[in-house]
Amino acid sequence: MRSTAEILKKIRRLEIRTRRIVETAFSGEYHSVFRGHGMNFDEFREYQLGDEIRTIDWNVTARMSHPYVRKYIEERELTILLMVDVSASGVFGTVSISKRELAAEVASLLAFCAVNNNDNVGLLLFTDKTELYIPPKKSRTHALRIIREVLYYEPAHRGTDLVQALEFISRINSRRAVVFLLSDFQNLDFEHAASVCSKRHDLIAVPIEDPGEQSLPPAGLVRVEDPETGEIFEANFSSRRVQREFAQAAVKHREERDAIFHRQKIDFVPLSTARDYFPVLHSFFQHREQRLKRGG
User: Which residues have CB under 8 Å from 94's CB, separation 6+?
Assistant: First the structure.
């Protein structure tokens, strides 16, 4: 059982690290990455040369017998929603941190991005049930609560159900938001729910990976327990056939997961416990910004 002092120390350490990244590397970039969201209708006006054809309002045009377009103004604030998978498989980690600890640090960075830009940020922790929902708000205190919950919340369940989590977000948030889904995506039955959610929100998937899930160490006969189901089985990790089949299954799972994102046009950025997440995340944001500037 961690003491309150230990918990506060870790949260403070995480705050210092993520705030430094936000204030140096993400300054001036954050809003441009998510531009085009949080737009409010302002007024109708006559079509002018150079206006986007898709902004024409055909109902008003028909009534006025002249092309009219809808004019929008950008809202001053965004809503960021962090969906974090806290199922039992998140405790797995073969390097310095577990998958859940990596998810916590990435969620912290995104929370401080939001606070630093005066945006709202909310949190959903889920397993095969909705474990905890914190509605979007803005303040440093609110961000610190989110970090504390991601780090230390004790889930009541062990399994994973991405479908119910995505349906919960689609149901409870009527306002368009930027939604980050952090999960190891052990189950791949989420495509329809992700499609529905991505039409309502800007859904960005963040698969959390560990190298121990890609290949087996030659450790001989090993008893393994599935952390989510509790099922126990034995396997000879030194067998070349077992190692080959395990690696092939891992590649197939990853390819099927990524194919879902491609089919549904959902942006995704895989992160690994074996390498620094920040360069990968920063590169993803830069490429996304460039794509948006090109209109893609």
Answer: 210, 211, 212, 273
